């Protein structure tokens, strides 16, 4: 296998950065290279296009690859855990190269700006709460990608507790403000490679590429705590803070997106009958 991959840059740009630090990513890249068709003129062009669908050639592809490796390192420092090369590659082009953070389906891969008062942040949140509800194509695309590259894919369904009761006490404008605040909290808690979209008037889905159930459950717990603690500070919206109930599941082989969502809904609704302000996990 080493002879098949003995091209200029393999050791310095693939083996050395990944083999010991991230063996799973290293194996993924080797498999992509070994299974690539003969239509690619450069191995880095092949890897980037297979990971992200971005077309680039020659030295440009190698420079992009260096940037992706640096971006992966920066993400791992920020998140405090390993980030797969596929997630880092997609995140790099979504947030660094493209910058807008919006995909073609009306969902958002948010950029890394942590300023909650930033106008772009508010504009994205406003657009999200008024976007079309529940576009199943978003999840289908991510499930196909995860299956293709043999990555874990998890989803969080987040329900705003007692939203109908809160709505009765507030004007429609204040309800929108509450949702904008919650979206900003979600945005600051998730990675920029993750996708959020509105599932129903009081529910959101967070799609987590390259994330297993344990990692998703930990993230859901952080979301639950953050929403409650940070909304307590906004007296004009809800004096005692807003709580959320969440369900978490990891995609299983052979399941379709519609059935996966129904399972998350069932777990969430069963859980809410027991106790709000909690995280419930979908068992395999």
What would you note in describing this structure?
- The protein is an alpha+beta fold.
- It has two domains: 10-97, no CATH class; 108-281, 2-Layer Sandwich (Alpha-Beta Plaits).
- It has helices spanning 10-18, 23-35, 43-52, 58-79, 85-97, 119-129, 136-149, 163-169, 172-189, 213-231, 257-274; strands spanning 108-109, 153-160, 195-200, 203-209, 244-250, 279-281.
- A six-stranded mixed sheet has the order 1-3-4-2-5-6.
- A hairpin with a 2-residue loop joins strand 3 (195-200) and strand 4 (203-209).
- The longest helix has 22 residues, at 58-79.
- The radius of gyration is 20 Å and the shape is elongated.
- The chain starts with 9 loop residues before the first helix and ends with a strand.
- Residues 99-120 have low confidence and may be disordered.
Provide a quick synopsis of the model.
With 284 residues, the chain is α+β, with helices and mostly antiparallel strands.
Q: Key features?
A:
284 residues; alpha+beta; Alpha-Beta Plaits; 2 domains; 6 strands; elongated
Largest sheet: 6 strands, mixed
Low-confidence runs: 99-120
Q: Count up the domains.
A: 2
The CATH superfamily label of the largest domain reads Reverse transcriptase/Diguanylate cyclase domain
Output the CATH topology of the largest domain.
Alpha-Beta Plaits
Separate helix tally: 11
List the helices and strands and how they pair.
Layout: H1 10-18, H2 23-35, H3 43-52, H4 58-79, H5 85-97, E1 108-109, H6 119-129, H7 136-149, E2 153-160, H8 163-169, H9 172-189, E3 195-200, E4 203-209, H10 213-231, E5 244-250, H11 257-274, E6 279-281
Parallel strand pairs: 5-6
Antiparallel strand pairs: 1-3, 2-4, 2-5, 3-4
